[in-house]
Amino acid sequence: MNPLIVSSFTGVSCLGAGVEAWSTALAGRRSGLRPCAFEDVAVNTFIGEVPGLDRSPVRADLAAYDCRNNRLAEDGLKQDGFLEAVLDTRERLGAKRIAVILGTSTSGVMQVERAYQQADPTTGALPHFYYPETQNSYSLAAFVRRFLGLSGPAYVISTACSSSAKVFGGAARLIEAGLADAAVVGGVDSLCLTTLYGFRSLELLSDQACRPFDPDRNGISIGEGAGFALLTRADGAAARAAPRDAIALVGIGESSDAYHMSTPHPEGLGATLAMQRALATAGLAPTAIGYINLHGTATRTNDVAEGRAVARLFGREVPCSATKGSTGHLLGAAGIAEAIITMLSLRNGWLPGTANTARVDPECVCRVLLEGEAARSRYALSNSFGFGGNNCSLVFGRI
Amino acid sequence: MRVYVDGIGLLGPGFGGWTQACAVFRGETAYAAGATARPTVDLLPPVERRRCGDTVRLALHVGVEAVRASGADAARLAAVFASSSGDGEVTHHICLALARAERDVSPTRFHNSVHNAPAGYWSIATEAREPSTSLCAYEGSFAAGLLEAGLQVTAGQRPVLLVAYDAPYPPPLNVFYPMVGPFGVGFVLSPTAGATSLGSLELTLAEDGDETKLPDPALESLRRGVAAARSLPLLVALARGEQSCTHLGYLPGANVVVDAAPCAPPCGGDAG
């Protein structure tokens, strides 16, 4: 594929607002996970909550879009000079030439959860809520598109936990075909009852802060977050204006497991295909990859399948880490959050460790860094795998 | 960008399949709106068949019909699933459970709650390990899906299955997004004309403006009444084997324009 310059990126999670806060937290191997005290949820688990969302409604002219998910989106757009970078690009390229492709798994579902809790006890009728602006999957992209004043192609990808990795592919195709010159990609997912009680029902929630790749790992910790990246053509004026140490998206691989709705393929077959296809589109050999940010959910099944797949393809030497012990599992925003962490590893020359994990499960076989380490690599890969067996791997590089 | 339509599947009020619908679209039989036939999902293993609900079945049914008509190997197709609405039945039951004191969500309902549930079941049923995506652009979801499928066909020079589907929400949720009935449409799109190709589609983006409407009031109310049925003007043009230009509503500020042309005897004819 033709590389795409990532001219700006930003994120908000329980590690903090803005990527410097993330870098600091990851350098200190800090976890943002805390015992769950969200709303009136009675689930014995840890969560990665973003503080202050209850008190900060969205921009007044977009009040119909007000919900936890879009508040989190707005919070993200305002960090790291991202908003200014988009407005500057809009000035140069025109609003119609910038696409908005975003991922979410649950969008503003908390609005409908609340409505059901307040349903009329006799008729069952629900109190009013703004359905298209909040609960509908597209509401996130509609909100961000309006917030940024953009009018190019837009849609939301919702493929569970790979959603906001796959957005890079949709944006790349639009730009390659000449239907856009730049794209705002990313993802937002926010805490809600559906995922907390849903993952509890599947017995996939850890009762501690999650420990990816630890032999004693016992499930995930759910987090919330927003992440965005601004992609521009590598040959355009926007790219020439990019900083000299800019990062580019150089490869993307997508696949399906064709195995089970909520359990990954035990040998990581779909994961392997996604990583192979990402390398192929990047035109790189496995040895070119200097760091892998693992999907690493800390479930029994994911980590062993992923670790084996990584070791088969890359050998046992390439440094890997799983950062969900720090951020929690951001579900539909996990892909972009880990893309950001992967880009930070390239920019900072520093590979994050794996928070909360005491030792590495020998069954997982790949080289999982427990502590962070300095390393300047040219290329790094990020894995995202979702329910429905939906896989996506991204390769980023320094240009 | 140009793509070829190699097979179509269709299920909706008064439409039990593409061949039957063609007679209506050509004006040979009158449109009679009625209940949508129950979709069949023979291709799913029994365990998955028990687990999936009517919305997933609708998506799979039209996917199967389109793939069979195209003669393509389902396992080798990439797939794009587009829905304006997801699965309201699942959302309804999960929210009911969450409104009760015990909050005991069904694990099967939870894994069915993801927007990509049909894509997941599809890949399990067909053993397709190719990429699949599941997207939403609210009422412009069909146009968004067609555009993305077209981009995948041309970028990858490979056939792609597009499935657009929407099914009414149950009460009390239906008040917030009413639909006239379930509607699903499947297309197998390919980069080159083949033995089963019905027509070619030239896809472009344009300023938003008037969408193409249908002269038949009953078909027009179906088109307006459920987002996946925004595909109807394109289906009518393909059934008639006519050159046509269809403006599909996509987003505020953008339409997808489809210039369709026949490239073989249209459906019902001998594709030889």
Structure description:
- The complex is a heterodimer of chains A (399) and B (272).
- By secondary structure, chain A is an alpha/beta fold.
- Chain A has helices at residues 19-27, 68-77, 82-93, 109-117, 131-135, 139-148, 163-176, 193-201, 237-240, 269-282, 300-314, 324-327, 334-348; strands at residues 4-13, 16-17, 34-35, 46-48, 98-103, 154-157, 182-189, 222-223, 225-233, 247-256, 289-293, 320-321, 350-351, 373-374, 379-386, 390-398.
- Chain A has two domains: 4-240, Peroxisomal Thiolase, Chain A, domain 1 (3-Layer(aba) Sandwich), CATH 3.40.47.10; 247-398, 3-Layer(aba) Sandwich (Peroxisomal Thiolase, Chain A, domain 1).
- Helices cover 33% and strands 21% of the residues of chain A.
- In chain A, strands 1, 2, 5, 6, 7, 9, 10, 11, 12, 15 and 16 form an eleven-stranded mixed sheet that branches. A three-stranded mixed sheet of chain A has the order 3-4-8, with no helix packed on it.
- In chain A, helix 2 (68-77) packs parallel to helix 6 (139-148), helix 7 crosses helix 13 (334-348) and helix 10 (269-282) crosses helix 11.
- The longest helix of chain A is centred in the C-terminal third of the chain and has 15 residues, at 300-314.
- The radius of gyration of chain A is 20 Å and the shape is globular.
- Chain B has nine helices and eight strands.
- The two termini of chain B are 27 Å apart.
- The model of chain B is unreliable at 267-272 (pLDDT under 50).
- Chain B has one domain (2-197): Peroxisomal Thiolase, Chain A, domain 1, CATH 3.40.47.
- Chain B has helices at residues 18-25, 46-51, 54-70, 88-99, 107-112, 117-126, 141-156, 217-225, 232-240, and strands at residues 2-11, 78-82, 132-136, 160-166, 183-190, 199-206, 244-251, 254-262.
- At the A-B interface, helix 4, helix 5, helix 6, strand 6 and helix 7 of A face helix 4, helix 5, helix 6, strand 3 and helix 7 of B.
